[in-house]
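Friendly challenge for the regulars: who can give me the structure tokens for this chain first? No prize, just bragging rights.
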Amino acid sequence: MDFVQRSFPGNNATLPTPQIYFEPQEKLLIVATAWGSPTGAKKVIETISEYFLATKSDKEATSPFRRLNYLSTAANNLRIATLVANELLYREENRNEYRCGIELFVGTIQDRELAWLQVGYPNIMIQRKGHSLLPISVHMGLANEVEHSEKFLPPLPNSLIGISPEPQLFIQSICPKPGDNIVLLSRSWIPRELFKSNVKTFEDMSRALSLDPNEPFWLGQWKID
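First reply, four minutes later:
Bragging rights claimed.
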């Protein structure tokens, strides 16, 4: 199990660089992108990782939020850990004025299930041997909604945690196959070149995404054993 990443600054705009927490032994990946104070991402990562790992080792741990019957144990733990982090960030940073919001991906693998939680970017795709990339969770940023064809707009977030006591969380899961890779991409538009049959490696994806020098992106690849 491995994780690689790359950032590409565009000519006309940049993206905040995500802060990464990757624990291969625990099979936990957190990608937190701070809009505003960068300390917010650190707080979110610390809170989610500590709470999630504590509940993973102690199945009888008391939860401050109710569990949802339609989610697995792993997905419920991700959700509750994120709600704890959201409450902390809202209380300490944004109760009186907006200082920091976080785009978030949190993923874990347990009992042959890959469960993840997403708020905003990155987009999520699966790479499987013999197939082109398959988008499995795609998000639209604010720039996508207001951009006109004749005018380029820098990336803008549309969904963040920490700015409301009740965040909108997107939670999904799949059963990955051996050799699958999870590809994470923060970019306003996904170019068609990314889905060509000759785009197979991380370097291939990076080259396809950088064909437009004006469009900044962040790319990550989670290699699953």
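The first strand starts at residue 2 and ends at 8. The mean pLDDT is 91. Your move, everyone else.
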